[in-house]
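Forwarding the complex inputs:
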Amino acid sequence: MRILGVDPGLTRCGLGVIDSRPARQAALVAVDVVRTPSHADVDVRLGLLADAFDRWLDEHRPDVVAVERVFARNDVSTIMGTAQASGLTMGLAARRGIPVAMHTPSEVKAAVTGSGRADKKQMTRMVTRILKLESPPKPADAADALALAICHLWRGAASSGSTPGAAKDVDARLAARPAGAGLTKAQQAWAEAIRAASS
Amino acid sequence: MRILGVDPGLTRCGLGVIDSRPARQAALVAVDVVRTPSHADVDVRLGLLADAFDRWLDEHRPDVVAVERVFARNDVSTIMGTAQASGLTMGLAARRGIPVAMHTPSEVKAAVTGSGRADKKQMTRMVTRILKLESPPKPADAADALALAICHLWRGAASSGSTPGAAKDVDARLAARPAGAGLTKAQQAWAEAIRAASS
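Prediction (whole assembly, two chains):
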């Protein structure tokens, strides 16, 4: 299974791809941080992010996308950009039929380090060790995206949907989807209904 | 000039297209509300919205997209879905080089009715009158998207970017863009830099 972890943001959007290996091992495939200029208009920044994210989906063809869950209670000054970036990446992945899972920062920390309160240093150290890298992933703020992907791999049946508590088995969704399609039958029926209604 | 107004939302996303006519007149081109099923996962809903919105861009080829500005202080229970939907539509428009303007609800009310505190009934009545429709636009909650488009037409030099106070002249951006491209030269330079950095 190939997992693309997304640490959403407008100024920096971390992207990290890992492949699962037997015995819960994981291998690094690609990691980077997409930056958009803070002095550009928000729509232009989102357009640049959309292009970059679609290129990653084209190039790496992940089976699952794991996105950090954004909470409305986060810092108000950055919440809008983060929510917009997360909505954009989620929509672009979902329209290709790629299941999207969401994990909270503390879920990610707990999965990777064993503690939901781990600091950045501990997280980077564990990501480096888990992926058997010779040095910490670069750029430094890309480690979070890899940690998200590792968290998804290890948590297995991961929560999905943005409503806390509405846990869904994203791997079951992945298994249930018909070959060549990305949506379950029910989801396809909805999609067709919406397409019919708007055409 | 053709303007696509977007009233962003996951459960209902209003879309309304108008054409400008001489003497500040406006003509209705198309209006609808895209709905996604509330029991579906957020990523699937965003994917459906992405497909629907891209179809509207393909079909109607607007010169400008006017999106309701979402504030972080809005109702917390719906803010995330609204922000995600707005980010998605803004990114999809911007990547095509279509300028995106944002207007606050009170700007829209003031532009359309003369009062920033107009109620839904007054708004619908004015939209119906401005567009010279025989009956109010249907579905009923589609009037907001048309009001956004009318607001953009009448306000002319509209604000852009999600930071209140950072007003930009979106029509100047529209005029300045090179033929066949959607971004200004500076924006193209950023886009190329980002593409180069991530390829």
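Chain A has one domain: 2-198.
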